[in-house]
Amino acid sequence: MATLFHYPFCPHSRFVRLVLAEMGMEPTLVEERPWERRRDFLVMNPAGTVPVFVEEQGLVVPGPQVVAEYLDETRGLGLDSRRLLPENPAARVEVRRLLDWFHIKFFDDVSNYLVVEKIYKRFMGSEAGGGPPDMSAIRAARANVRYHLRYVGFLAAKRNWLAGADLTYADLAAAAHLSCADYLGDVPWDEDEQAKAWYARIKSRPSFRSLLADRVAGMAPAAHYADLDF
Amino acid sequence: MATLFHYPFCPHSRFVRLVLAEMGMEPTLVEERPWERRRDFLVMNPAGTVPVFVEEQGLVVPGPQVVAEYLDETRGLGLDSRRLLPENPAARVEVRRLLDWFHIKFFDDVSNYLVVEKIYKRFMGSEAGGGPPDMSAIRAARANVRYHLRYVGFLAAKRNWLAGADLTYADLAAAAHLSCADYLGDVPWDEDEQAKAWYARIKSRPSFRSLLADRVAGMAPAAHYADLDF
Question: Which of A70, A90, B129, B188 has its CA 20 to 30 A from that of B222?
Answer without folding.
Answer: B129
